[in-house]
Structures are given as C-alpha cells and as structure tokens.
C-alpha cells in the first residue's frame, strides 16, 4: 500500500466525526475566521482541499447567496457523504498529490485547512494549491521554534478521535514545522505572492497527538496574488 493509500484509509476511521463537526460558521476556528470573514464575497469560486464531508460548502451557504464550491478529498467515504449532504456542490475523490480531476482550473479562494500537519507531502500540497489559486490561498500549519519534526515514529496522530477504538493503532504523521522554515516554504511555494499574512495562537497539541512537543503555534496563512 502506498503512503497516500494508507492515509486515505486512516481517514476512514473518523468519517462520522464530520457528521456534526466543522459544518457551520460557528464551528470555524477564530484563526480561520480572522481571514475568511473578509474573503466571502458573492459570486466567488472556492476549492476546498481535504474537504471531508464538504462542511465549508455549508459555511459558504450561511454567508453567501451565490458561490461555486468544489471539494476534493483522498477519502472515498468522505466524498460519498459530501455528495449526499451538498448535492449542489462539486466533489472529486482524488489520490494524494493527484489533482488531475481539476487540471488547469483556478479558483478565487482555495482552502487547505486541517490537513497540512497530517501528511508527509505537505510541501507539495502547498505548491499545488497555489497553482490552483487565482486569488487567495488559506491554509494552516502547526509550528514551533525548534527543528521541524515530520518523522511519524517521533510525532504521530492517532485516528481514534472520532470514537473508533480501532483507529488508535492507525497513525498519521503529526508534522510540526520550525516557524522560520514555515515562512520559507510558504514564500517559496507561493511564487508571485503579493501579500502574505498569518494569524494564529499558541496552544497545547491535540489530544490525539503523540509528540515530544507540548505546545504548538496553530498558524493560518493567507497568501494573496
Ligand atoms: C481534519 S479533516 C479536515 C476537514 C476540513 N478541511 C476542515 O478543516 O474541517 C482532513 C480531511 O482531509 C483529507 N485529506 C488528508 N490529506 C489530504 C490530501 N493530501 N489531499 C486531499 N485530502 C486530504 C482527509 O481525508 C480528511 O477528510
């Protein structure tokens, strides 16, 4: 099984968690809303990378009369539920780092939320997301002042946070990026960025994380063309 297939299966353990989470404006984190509130404009096209059950289509619908939402996700189960919940939106099940389903397309707003710290090819994901961004890319990282940690044997994330005990043995990497490297990667990946901002807060790591680090900066980055 490839790393991407492993990760896609891992997310299968927490599909039901998204039945009731991350689907309304009230469930958007303060660090995300800080930027998102000013980016929601009628008529926009939105690409949501790692859309789970398409919760942000619901967030858009609460705030906008007119928008086009496209969600992509590596989990077939998430995408099946997303299509049922949001029949007016467009969804694609994709392979990790295979975005051929949306080849050549750009979107006014691209969201990459809650995934970069949980997969190995996160740098590539940022670069691909930027290539599909016509206007603004919003994404989050977990950062600290120490060296970047991305070895799953050192820092991992248990997939039992949705209540499925079988997920306890299934691990994703819990990637914590050195803050200076985070800035360098984002700047390098977002070629031609005209405005780059970030906003976040320092807080204890997720309860599902097994990592030598106690606290991380959960940082939302906003890159604009
Ligand atoms: C923690 S959930 C985040 C859902 C949503 N973006 C949010 O912020 O609420 C992560 C989702 O991203 C998907 N995912 C993880 N890595 C991915 C990748 N490299 N490309 C696309 N989807 C990915 C998972 O299958 C899962 O549905």
Question: What gyration radius follows from the Cα positions, in whole Å?
Answer: 16 Å
Helix content: 25-40%
Question: What's the tally of helices?
Answer: 6
Low-confidence stretches: none
Shape: globular
SS class: alpha/beta
Strand percent estimate: 25-35%
Mean pLDDT: 96
The CATH architecture comes to: 3-Layer(aba) Sandwich
CATH class equals Alpha Beta
Structure summary, number of beta strands = 11
- CATH fold-level label: Rossmann fold
CATH H level, superfamily name = Vaccinia Virus protein VP39
Order of helices and strands: HHEHEHEEHEEEEHEEE
The hetero compounds bound to this protein are:
S-adenosylmethionine
Give the count of structural domains.
Answer: 1
GO molecular function: methyltransferase activity
Protein name: Methyltransferase type 12 domain-containing protein
Pfam families: Methyltransf_12
Keywords: Methyltransferase, S-adenosyl-L-methionine, Transferase
Write the layout of secondary structure elements.
Blueprint: H1 3-11, H2 30-39, E1 44-49, H3 55-63, E2 67-73, H4 76-85, E3 90-93, E4 107-112, H5 122-131, E5 133-144, E6 156-158, E7 171-173, E8 177-178, H6 179-189, E9 195-204, E10 209-210, E11 215-224
Parallel strand pairs: 1-2, 1-4, 2-3, 4-5, 5-8
Antiparallel strand pairs: 5-11, 6-7, 6-10, 9-11
GO biological process, one term: methylation
GO molecular function: methyltransferase activity
Pfam family, one: Methyltransf_12
């Amino acid at each position: 099984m490839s790393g991407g297939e492993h990760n896609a299966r891992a997310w299968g353990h927490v599909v039901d968690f998204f039945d009731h989470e991350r689907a309304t404006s009230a469930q958007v984190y303060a660090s995300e809303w800080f930027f998102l509130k000013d980016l929601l404009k009628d008529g926009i096209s939105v690409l949501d990378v790692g859309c789970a059950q398409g919760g942000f289509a619901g967030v858009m619908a609460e705030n906008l009369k007119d928008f086009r939402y496209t969600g992509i996700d590596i989990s077939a189960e998430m995408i099946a539920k997303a299509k049922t919940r949001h029949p007016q939106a467009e969804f694609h099940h994709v392979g990790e780092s295979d975005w051929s389903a949306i080849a050549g397309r750009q979107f006014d707003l691209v969201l990459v939320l809650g995934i970069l710290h949980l997969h190995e090819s996160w740098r590539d994901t940022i670069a691909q997301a930027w290539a599909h961004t016509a206007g603004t890319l919003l994404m989050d990282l977990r950062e600290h002042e120490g060296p970047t940690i991305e070895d799953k044997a050192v820092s991992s994330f248990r997939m039992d946070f949705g209540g499925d005990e079988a997920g306890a043995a299934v691990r994703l990497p819990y990637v914590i990026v050195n803050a200076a490297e985070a800035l360098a990667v984002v700047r390098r990946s977002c070629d031609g960025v005209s405005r780059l901002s970030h906003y976040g807060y320092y807080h204890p790591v997720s309860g599902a994380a097994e990592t030598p680090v106690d606290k991380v900066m959960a940082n939302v980055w906003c890159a604009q063309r």
